[in-house]
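Pilot study result, target chain (248 residues):
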Amino acid sequence: MTKETNLDLLEMPFEALAAYWLSLKKVFDLKKGKVDFETEAHNTPEPFIRHVLELVFSELEIAVVRKLFQVKQDEMLHQLAQKLHLMRLAIQAIAINENPRISLIRMNAQFASPPLNEEEVFGMAKAMNEALEDPASHRKILLEIDHKMSADRLMVKLIFYIIYARRSGKQALDIFFNELNSPYFAEGLGLCIDGFEVDFINRHLESIAKEIRRSVEKKAAMSIEMALCIRKKYSYEDIYTVAKSYLP
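Predicted structure:
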């Protein structure tokens, strides 16, 4: 992986992730264990993998590494679930033509402390709409929906979509499909535009979110086990066997 790679654990195929750890094992063997893991972590753009590298190849005992890994994994999965739920709330709001103020209340309820207040959210959503009217604006940046963005930024963009749908009709959102980075949000939005009932859309998106979580959790587990195998100096063949246990 390089700095130019903009992947995360959700997007990385199992095979590519396993190949990354196996390639690291090859480097480890070639350099007889003298790998600069600090530099490797620094050059790894995927934040969870970077954290695994920092944890596993520290001086911490393996029991401590496993405990801290679990803490980090739980937080990562929680944040992912939060963002997927925010998207689902937005899709629901679009489907039923909900008042955006009510939608924001529902979204803020997903946090112990709301990331943004109503004035901030609607002010930024209005600014987005004004920016879109400028032919020189970068539509891809303005309209993108992505689980990798911060929760507050995501909320502003979702509220914009809700407001736009309420004013222009949900079918009008069809023109924004090329700007979406999230297949999850695009799936829900497509069902909305096609007129599916909100209960069906919710159940469908909940099912997808469950599978996304399972996949990410499994990739995280594979990463910590393969990294620990490298630390323990297991053979390449044994580490490959570990990888095969996790591959679909």
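One observation from the pilot: Confidence is low (pLDDT under 50) at residues 1-5. A full batch analysis is planned for the follow-on phase.
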